[in-house]
User: What shape does this take?
Amino acid sequence: MKINFQILFIASVSAQFGKHVYVEHEYEWPEAQQYCRDHYTDLSPLTSHREEMKLKTATTGKVQKFWIGLYRNGTDWKWSGGGHFHFFCINLIVMETKRTWLQAMWQCKNTHTALVSLASETEHLLAVREIQQDDVTELVWIGLRFLQDRWLWVNDDPLDYQAWPKEGDQDHLCPLWKRCGALTKEGRWENWDCDARLNFICY
Assistant: This one.
């Protein structure tokens, strides 16, 4: 599957907007990707019009034009153009402190931005790569919660992409007490008791 993005943004000087960090440096794509990997997680994957609109709204002020053009080939990122441009990095942080789901949510809000929402396959793959590289735990809390008879992202991202197990345990369909979502190192979502203590991943 090939995903292409060519997006024009209005951005202000060095700032963080949720999971995205605006970088004012002008690099060619390979250097921009390396910068993001060295200092954050990777170049930002913008996977929806809604996300694009959030950034446009958040970055009012000094106007800078730039674009990103990424496509995914397996798990490798490829660039669809060249030149020197400003860029956004995505910043995922694995917290090596075991907390309940609610404690993890509050710690993310207080020290970073939020528990991650994995609203696309791209974001999901980046989070899996991050927890595999950190090698700290089998499971991490994510911002997934079962409320009012449905699963949702607590930051209000749409729940279009899902990574529940295809076979076997289907407790997530109607959980009685396992109402908080966790991500495994293998990339599956699992529902857990919200009072369990797990490491977690923030923006």
Remarks:
- The longest strand covers residues 139-147.
